[in-house]
Design a protein that fits this description.
- It is a single chain.
- The protein is α/β, with parallel strands linked by helices.
- The chain folds into 4 domains: 113 residues; 34 residues; 42 residues; 49 residues.
- The chain has 7 helices and 7 strands.
Length: 330
């Protein structure tokens, strides 16, 4: 009797152990048996080491696992021709996954397995319903970092090569410019000579400094330029000589105009100029006769100087009197 009782107890223990083991396996392998689950479909370009059973995270917290992978997906089922992989995931129905959410495959640790992580959800879009679909993306990883870096570096390297070529050409040109007998050394030599000339010109005893000192002395308070300007200001001032002269001239012309003396004065001046002209004409004729006499006297002194002492033996013709000019009175 005791043996039978022990066998029953042993059988019950085995059944309970097997049931517990099955429950644990179902809980781990098929959590939807005990906890309500939602199924979602995520499309990726490739699976990126994702396999069935891989964790599914919500902002870093595990909420489910990958159930199945389908690749390649028929073209008719792809939301985008590049999305070749469809992953089925099961998550807790209580997980707050919104319609607009970022689903990506990432690798939490450097040597860890890849996981699917939902993040950056938009609460305003509302919660995603069961059997909803999402467009996923691959998070940058060390394996994909090198191609991305190279893709970014290719244009930079191309520009760098062009820049190096330009620098090489520039270096060659500089070598030619700075070679012996080139224009640049000669230009530097001439520039150095120019600097020496400028230094000499602007030195303490240089002409430029002396010219500036002379200009400073000329334009100082006691300089000649200032004195000349002061004298000019006094001359043209209200009490100056020039102003008084203009006033006297104005007064004189006003008196002439008032007394009608201007016409008479001009007429007298015209008669005076005519008389002076006639007198100068007469003097000109007389100077002509005097000139002839002086010429004869100098000729006599030159050839017959004794005639200054003895009796003259030279005969002169009777000079023809100059015709008299008559002037009509105006």
């Amino acid at each position: 009797m005791n043996i039978l009782r022990n066998e029953v107890r042993t059988g019950l223990l085995v059944v309970i152990s097997l049931s517990a083991l099955v429950a644990i396996l179902l809980f781990l392998g098929a959590p939807g048996v005990f906890i309500p689950q939602h199924t979602y479909w995520i499309y990726f370009q490739d699976a990126a080491s994702i396999k069935p059973g891989s964790p599914v995270l919500l902002a870093g917290r595990k909420i489910g696992q990958v159930r199945a992978l389908f690749s390649p997906v028929p073209d008719s089922e792809r939301p985008d021709p590049k999305l070749e992989t469809k992953i089925e995931v099961q998550v807790k129905s209580t997980a707050r996954i919104f319609k607009h959410v970022k689903a990506q495959i990432t690798q939490p640790t450097m040597l860890g397995d890849s996981v699917i992580d939902f993040s950056n959800g938009d609460e305003a879009s509302g919660l995603a319903q069961n059997d909803a679909s999402f467009i996923g993306e691959l998070a940058p990883s060390l394996s994909g970092l090198a191609p991305m870096v190279m893709e970014r570096l290719d244009p930079v390297l191309a520009k760098l090569n062009g820049t190096l070529d330009s620098l090489q050409k520039t270096s060659d040109n500089l070598t030619k410019l700075t070679a012996q007998g080139a224009d640049l050394p000669e230009a530097f030599t001439e520039f150095k000579q120019l600097g020496m000339n400028l230094n000499e010109l602007s030195g303490y005893q240089g002409p430029l400094r002396q010219s500036l000192q002379n200009i400073e002395a000329l334009t100082s308070d006691q300089g000649k330029l200032v004195q000349s300007l002061n004298q000019l200001a006094e001359l043209t001032g209200p009490e100056g000589s020039l102003s008084k002269t203009f006033k006297n001239t104005e007064k004189f012309t006003a008196e002439l105009t008032a007394n009608n003396d201007a016409a008479a004065t001009l007429r007298n001046l015209r008669e005076l100029s005519e008389n002076l002209n006639r007198r100068m004409t007469q003097l000109g004729q007389q100077f002509s006769v005097i000139g002839v006499n002086l010429e004869q006297a100098s000729d006599t002194v030159k050839h017959q100087p004794w005639r200054l002492i003895w009796k003259s033996t030279k005969e002169y013709g009777t000079p023809t009197p100059a015709p008299k000019k008559t002037y009509s009175a105006r």
